[in-house]
Amino acid sequence: MITTVFMPKLGLTMEEGTIVKWHKQVGQRVEIGEIIFELESDKAVLEYESPVDGILLKILIDEDVLVPVATPVGYIGDDAGEIVEDMTENSVVVTGESTNGTATGESAQEIISGTDASEELSTADRQKSSVSEGVRATPRVRALAKKLGVPIECVEGSQEDGRISEDDVNSYHAKMSGAAGKSGPGDIMVSTPYDGIRRKIGEQLRTSCNEKPHIYQTVEVDMQSVIIKRNADKAREGSPSISDYIVYACTAALKEYPQLNSLLVNDVILQYIPINIGYAVDTPRGLIVPVIKNCGSLSLEELSKERKRMVDGALTGKLMPDDYAEGTFTISSLGSFGIQSFTSIINPPQTAILSVAALEERAVVRDGNIVIRPCMNLTMAIDHRIVDGAVAARALTTIKGFLESECIWV
């Protein structure tokens, strides 16, 4: 029997994915639950476990090739010699579901005929194109070479199997540029395809800038009450961080001013009841915004635990696509970089985003006296089509008052 493994759909929002690494090669035996490849959606890298015991008969999709979900990526069979045989009656298709960050095979369904399977094989072979015209390179590498005007047949592959990498193409292009006098001595130009997460982020932000009339408001917040409370709880394991207090304060403001917890979709303003706050995380793969769901029903401790889980998952690439979905408000922090004030672009289709700057000691006047207090600037960007400036100002003042109040954290 032959099992056809498809690109799994790992959540409601996933539409396409890329195999970033095959852990098994053609001819190798695999067991149920054994990792056979890693895949990347638009924001998460996950592992796919074999749904059956058998031999990896064929790899249909090479690494670094973006394909839609449900695209055949490989065949697993009982015998290495049965890649085409018995496709009519004994073939099954296995789609993937996700369990705790790992894609696994689901129950098999008999849906492939012998004719369809042959067509899939030929189509996949055309898509793969890792060996064609005497050149070993993935479609992504070929596209980069074409974009840069590099004759790929002249590039020497640095991989063990002679395959050409993106670095090989970039290096060759740099040499071409230098030879043509376009680059001075010691200058190297590295070209990176505008795709994947970087393209996803860029398209979303461009849409937001073009469609949303942003207005910005900034307040200075005296964080002494929060610092006192945090220091008192610091010895307790899992105690909330300053970021958790800010998320908690935003939740309180969104309850009072639900207009900011709205989405504009197809010319309809949808005011959401659940408060789902996205928390921007800087990762090696780009900016990722996991969403803390139902913040309004969480205690400070519960919210802190969930935020930390989301941040850790984003940094390790173990979150699911649905963990980034359904956000209604976003918080972005650059405080760890010492940034004193900044503005953010609203994450579409949301209405507002809060920019959190650095916490620093400042000289302020209290009761006619100059004192030193731990302060930070908070800047809110609002979609002026949906929320008036006065409403936004009240919401931002509520966040400020919540953080500065001594009784709130008792």
List the SSEs and their pairings:
Elements: E1 2-6, E2 16-22, E3 29-30, E4 35-40, E5 45-49, E6 54-59, E7 66-68, E8 72-77, E9 92-94, E10 96-99, E11 102-105, H1 114-128, E12 131-132, E13 135-136, H2 139-148, H3 166-179, H4 196-211, E14 214-222, H5 224-233, H6 242-256, E15 262-265, E16 268-271, E17 277-279, E18 281-283, E19 286-288, E20 291-292, H7 300-316, E21 329-333, E22 352-356, E23 360-366, E24 369-383, H8 389-404
Parallel strand pairs: 1-9, 5-11, 17-21, 21-22
Antiparallel strand pairs: 1-8, 2-4, 2-7, 3-6, 4-5, 6-8, 10-11, 12-13, 14-24, 15-16, 17-20, 18-19, 22-24, 23-24
Q: What descriptive keywords fit this protein?
A:
410 residues, alpha+beta, Dihydrolipoamide Transferase, 3 domains, 24 strands, 28% helix
Describe it for me?
By secondary structure, this protein is an alpha+beta fold. The chain folds into three domains: 2-128, Beta Barrel (OB fold (Dihydrolipoamide Acetyltransferase, E2P)); 129-193, E3-binding domain (Dihydrolipoamide Transferase, Irregular); 197-404, Chloramphenicol acetyltransferase-like domain (Chloramphenicol Acetyltransferase, 2-Layer Sandwich), CATH 3.30.559. The chain is 28% helix and 28% strand. The protein has eight helices and 24 strands. The protein has helices at 114-128, 139-148, 166-179, 196-211, 224-233, 242-256, 300-316, 389-404, and strands at 2-6, 16-22, 29-30, 35-40, 45-49, 54-59, 66-68, 72-77, 92-94, 96-99, 102-105, 131-132, 135-136, 214-222, 262-265, 268-271, 277-279, 281-283, 286-288, 291-292, 329-333, 352-356, 360-366, 369-383. The termini are far apart. The model is unreliable at 84-133 and 180-186 (pLDDT under 50).
